[in-house]
User: Fold this.
Amino acid sequence: MKKIFLVALLFGVSVAYPQKVSFKVKVYGHGDPVILIPGLGCSGDVWKETVNEFKDHYKLYVLTLPGFAGVRSVDTPIIKTVKDQLISYVKEKHLEKPILMGHSLGGFLSLWAASEDPDLFSKVICADGFPFLPAATDPSVTVEEARNDPGYNAEAVADKYTGMPDNAFAASRFKWALAMVKDSANAKIITKWNMKSNRKALAYAYTEMCTTDLRNEIAKINIPVLVLGSTYGTAEASKKIMEGQFKNLPHKMIVIAPTRHFIMLDDPAWFKEQVKNFLVNGLYN
Assistant:
């Protein structure tokens, strides 16, 4: 490296060094590349069963985002930083048309990266991620209104999280996790990941996502997208929400899972079957 630098100085050559990324990456298997991105506060280990299913046929790049599950945090904006670094990582590693697979915030991040550079990727799998989460309950809400909502104010949420004693924060995250996944054992694991996360990073990443509207941006995604939604009340209600969120996405298939938010944990067999069909057949019905 020192020799290259000296040559560059002598001959005026521009040397591009690989960008250091803030997210942690574990690589498994071999084959076409798939990038797996977990949700808020979660470790890449949330994809464990998915990895075991597909590692013999695909090369899996499993991310854990900065500030989550023990990974060092970065300055804000967190999600935009990760999105930019993810695009650079794909280019610097010369990954050939990778597939993006994201859950929740990871799904949002996948949609953002694919909107910005759609030719870089081949397919997207969005597991219960939303282009604009606040509009899931109120389709008329605007970004400006979301920014003025105390529930989406980064500093207020961060102050709330950091001001809680560990036991109170753990109880709060466990209660949230129990609403998101059927098995209490999985809720405990999710809580453990959240407890290892930087609380400010949790707050800022969540509120950044909730004040960024991708509903028009996703119209730029010219590759197939599989949208897997969990059941909110009824499957019909969930399908309506997802159809509204993804109205501008041109090449999509929306399938509602018989699960809560963590689809791949609640029903691994169902999840893997949907993913397998999509990877093999594309938009297959």
About this structure: Residues 1-17 have pLDDT under 50 and may be disordered. The CA atoms of residues 36 and 266 lie 18 Å apart. The first helix runs from residue 2 to 11.
